[in-house]
Amino acid sequence: MNLRGGIALIKKSFFSYIASRGFYWTLALGWMMTPLIYMFVWVVIAGQGSVSGFEQSDFISYYTILIFVNQLTYPISHWTVGDNIFNGTFSTWLLRPLPVIYEPIAADIALKIACAPFIVIFIVIIVFLFGFRLSLTITNFLLFIVSLILAQVLRFMFGYTLALLGLITSKINSFLSVNDILVHILAGQIIPTILLPGIIRHISVFTPFRYMLGFPIELIQGKLSAEQINYGLIIQLIWIIIVIIVNRFVWSRGIKHYSSIGG
To answer: Would you say which domain of life the source belongs to (predicted)?
Structure first.
């Protein structure tokens, strides 16, 4: 592992983002507005009562945490990798004495650091205006950290693997758009996954999308039993292993195809 090279890439990407921070802060604001709108909708629906055990305060804390978790796990590089494949920049990545995956990882880390001050201020304003209630135990917090790290790895590798399909097909943007739609529906952005209608909820339990967002949030909110937490962590690990295996297959096939057409 070339740690020095990785840090250099992070610095390069960070200064690039800082130079255009207005654009990226606007982009981050766009990502945060959608959960905020859904929060308002569900707070109004809940009224003074509850929706399947979720009160107004639960929806406020859920979507506030969702904003944080989504910003931390969203892999913007799954779009930029595809762009770099098509514009030829990817070829220069192949010439570097570093694994290609270093570039999207560095870009992701750099963007999160660049946007962090703006995101923290936004969340503080939400908490100040609407309040925030969360019954937290040390055990739940530690398990949340574990699930959050796994969610980050899963979401990044899933998006990166889809992006590498750009080595084989020009239809990659369609795959990425479908991925974002499925995350939106099945990961808990529109509604907490435990409140999804019957058949959709059962489907979400077996897909990777719930474990990218909804699962860590429901865990820290105390909405899951010990058995559900253990099951969720195991599913996260299983999906990570599956995605890594698929990633290696796509990379192997993709790089051969890319080289054969003169990439």
So the answer is: Bacteria
CB 217 within 8 A of CB 188: yes
Domain presence at residue 110: yes
- Reading the block at residue 24, the tokens are 């990226």
How far does CA 208 lie from the centroid of its chain?
Answer: 11
Q: Which of 72-86, 99-113, 217-231, 249-263 has the lowest mean pLDDT?
A: 249-263
d(CA 119, CA 112): 9
> Is residue 54 domain-resident?
yes
User: How many residues are listed for the chain in this entry?
Assistant: 263
pLDDT tens-digit profile of 40-52? 999 899 888 788 8
**Residue 68 contacts residue 152 (beta carbons within 8 Å):** no
In the prediction, which pLDDT does 61 show? 92
Beta-carbon contacts of 64 under 8 Å, excluding residues fewer than 6 positions away, are 39, 123, 126, 127, 130, 132
Q: Chain centroid to CA 199: how far? A: 24
The mean pLDDT value for 135-162 works out to 93
In a domain, 263, yes or no: no
What does pTM read for this prediction? 0.89
Parent domain of 171: 3-257
Within a 10 A sphere around the Cβ of 128, how many other Cβ atoms?
A: 9
Structure tokens at 164: 């590498």
262 found inside a domain:
no
